Amino acid sequence: MAALLLLGFASGLPLFLTSRTLQAWMTVEGVKLSTIGLFSLVGLPYSLKFIWSPLLDRYMPPFLGRRRGWLVITQVGLVVAIALMATQNPKQSLQLLALNALLIAFLSASQDIAFDAYRTDVLKPPEMGAGAAVTVLGYRIALLLTGSLALILADRMPWQLVYLLLSLFMGIGIVAAFWAPEPDLRTQPPASLAEAVTLPFIEFFHRLGRLRAIAVLGFIVLYKLGDSLVNNMATPFLLKTGFTQTDIGAIQGGMGLLATIVGTLAGGAILSKIGIYRSLWIFGGLQAISNLSYLILSQLGKSYPAMVVAINIENFCGGLGTAAFVAFLMSLCNQRFSATQFALLSSLMAVSRDILVAPAGRLAEIIGWPWFFAITILAAVPGLMLLPVFAPWNGAPPTTTEEIF
Questions:
Q1: Where are the alpha helices (DSSP H) in 89-192?
Q2: Which of 2, 43, 123, 259 lies at a 20 to 30 A Cα distance from 293?
Q3: What would the pLDDT profile of 56-67 be if each residue is shown by its tens digit?
Q4: Where are the domains of the chain?
């Protein structure tokens, strides 16, 4: 669990540096909202990482094993790529900034492939709820650093220096990867790259059945869509409403992420009592309703009490949903193909976070913030409507089919 905490931190560190924190930098530099919204597309590698994930299942680095070796390789690359952001300037070249952010996203997505596979391999089924919660705890601590401290520092020093300082924190992940215990692998890796590409898909559809598998894939895309729409435009919304970068760093990046951590830990504890499927129902509903808090804030305007309440409610409920969602994704993976299967599933999740939300800035410009937040509530409904197909209230996840594959 200690290893998962530190590796979760390393996994979360790059995310805001190419999304929310980068959005704040561009907003301050006067970049248009429509352009800021389109910058979510630099997160495309998170959605496409399943394409190269079979390489991490099939091939083993010459040190630290199949999972930890790839962790160190990607983490060293991230140190360099994040440090390169210190050479960028949004006013002079958005293209170079986008390419640098894309490189960070690619290396971060590759790190996630290795880490998600490591976590899935090392945890036993009864440990998945706690493992998911501890991982998200480390992940959110990293977001606290890059979403809160970074904004506070940016009011006192150039953004380029902020990115240079943050690159050094990736060293925590490198140390953790060397120290983490090796998983007790009970299965052999695929015998060829062709098997590494094809068998994960065959096994997944064989185990769930075609209808349930399709419903699961659709659910993964849609489950956090409403939450992703809010997260994509929360920082520009708060800045446009009149709050300062320090306000946002302290409340959204600080208190909000602490609320997410509390929600994640509470979600992991509740999940161990009521099971994964019931958690998806309850936490998904709360996650959707929580967007009402931003709708109310958009009506009230610059109100610090309303801002604190909105950010804490939305982040706490988002943490509940994340704990259930991560545990659900782990329960769907066969250990032999955990890198490819988890990469595919989490890539689909990233479709809503990075691609479907790309028009969010333009939509907010056209219809205004109140209607935008109303739409985010409705966007959460389709995912919840798929739950009866594959996750009945009293159901249990299907077991893997290792004896066949």
A1: 94-122, 128-144, 150-154, 159-167, 171-179
A2: 43
A3: 877 788 887 778
A4: 2-390
